[in-house]
Amino acid sequence: MKTDRRRFMIQTSLAAGSVLAVNSLVAYRRASAASASLRADMGAGGYGMIQPVESNNTGEKLLELPKGFQYTVIGREGDKMSDGHATPARHDGMAAFNVRGELRLVRNHEINNRIGAEGAAIGGGSAYDPLAAGGTTTLVIDPKTRAIKRDFVSLSGTLHNCAGGPTPWGSWVTCEETIFGAARRTDSRGREVGGFAKPHGYCFEVPASADAAVAAAPLKAMGRFVHEAIAVDPRSGIVYETEDTGQAGFYRFLPEKRGQLASGGKLQMLAIRNRPAFNTSTGQKAGEPLSVMWVDIADPDPAGAETDPSSVYKQGLERGGATFSRLEGCWYGQGKIFFTSTNGGEKRLGQIWEYEPRGKNEGILTLLFESPDAEQLDRPDNICVSPRGSVVICEDGDGEQFVRGLTRDGRVFDIARNIMPGFEASEFAGATFSPDGETLFFNLQGAGVTVAVWGPWKDGAL
Question: What is the pTM of this model?
Answer without folding.
Answer: 0.91
